[in-house]
Amino acid sequence: MNKATLAACLATAFACPVLASAQTAPAAPASAPSLGAVLAATPGLSLTGYVATTYTHFDTSTPAQRQFDTTQNGFTLNQASLTAAYLPTSGFGASVTLLGGNDATYLPGGSQLGVENAFVQYAQGNLTLLAGRLPTLAGMEVVSPIANNEISRSLLFFDLEPIYHTGVRASYAVNGALTLSGGVNDGFNRASPVSGASKTVELGASGSPTKMFSYSVAYYYTGTSSYYNSSVLSKEQLLDLVGNLNATDALSFGVNVDLVTKDNYNGLATGSGKANGVALYANYAINDQYSLSGRGEYLDDKQGLVSGTLGQANKLKELTLALNYAPVKNVKLSAEVRQDKSDLAIFDGGSKDKQTSLELLAAYSF
User: pTM to 2 decimals?
Assistant: First the structure.
């Protein structure tokens, strides 16, 4: 046997077991795709969130007229929020926002973890349909501190405006200057229907006629409700107006007006209770990192309907000044000083007519 024949035989002898082993060996398990890969491979799918914490100090022992910042002197984990959303421009989608922290206690159940909003969406052309727990159409300010220029929320946000609704909504974009909305829901900040209450109807219009100006109008009506004075079921109405003006690239102004009426406001069939408020805003971007903002408010609670003085007229005013600093893209650091004043002594357990606060905020978004 020559060398070439011997080499071929040896090669065949050694190759056969190797081939047999390769054919019978189990395949290596496929690795699961990373979250980033899933998000990148699914257009319209997003996962976002933020964490926000504050230090607050009040010159009163029992802070009043505040939606979230109610710690007298200390640090608070206000919000840890996570939103998973798949909202394609055409067809079905959904969005869920979970909220943890002290601010989540306003949600149903009063715990520090809950669902801020969750809804199913269907979009086709200029029409969008929503069903579930929806953010309100009313107001200048929102739950997330990332989107507000001040740390504390306004008197209007606390006393007059809802935060969410459970129901259905339809929106139609006529053009860039006008989007019309309408819906039916269970009322203001209700996770489920209230016994004896009727459904609430919402109507809205919003748009940006120019690059400098944007606006929104929201109207809510319910024939039998108890949001303004929970002890009386009667007709309630809210008209909310918002306008924003970008005077320059650095300077912007905003205004929010609320008009509220409630029939039989005190249960004695004595007519309508009314509360009207206006908030004015200004924001100046010093540079890419620093900005100054201010807010001034006036709330005329004609029958004490919303400020806790039912049957007694009360007027409230507040002034807030804030400095915002963004050292890097996803970080927001803010400092704020605010003073509230009331015609009647509603602060510190009813012993003072003024309240002053200092707040610091640190927030990270992703």
Answer: 0.86
Per-residue pLDDT tens over the stretch 214-235: 999 999 999 999 999 988 999 9
Domains in the chain: boundaries: 44-239+320-337+347-365
State residue 4 phi and psi, 5-degree precision: -65, -45
CB of 135 closer than 8 Å to CB of 107 = no
Please state the rounded mean pLDDT for residues 78-107: 96
CATH for 44-239+320-337+347-365 (2.40.160.10, 2.60.120.20, 2.40.10.10, 1.10.150.130) = 2.40.160.10
Sequential DSSP letters for 189-228: T-SSPPTTPPPEEEEEEEE-SSSSEEEEEEEEEEEEE-SS
DSSP class of residue 249? S
Annotate 129-168 with b (16+ C-beta within 10 A) or e (fewer).
Answer: bbbbbbbbbbbbbebbbbebbbbbbbbbbbbbbbbbbbbb
Q: Compute the Cα dihedral for 14, 20, 25, 30 and give only its sign.
A: positive
Q: Residues 179-223: pLDDT tens digits?
A: 999 999 999 998 888 888 999 999 999 999 999 999 999 999 999
pLDDT one-digit tens code per residue, 290-304: 999 999 999 999 999
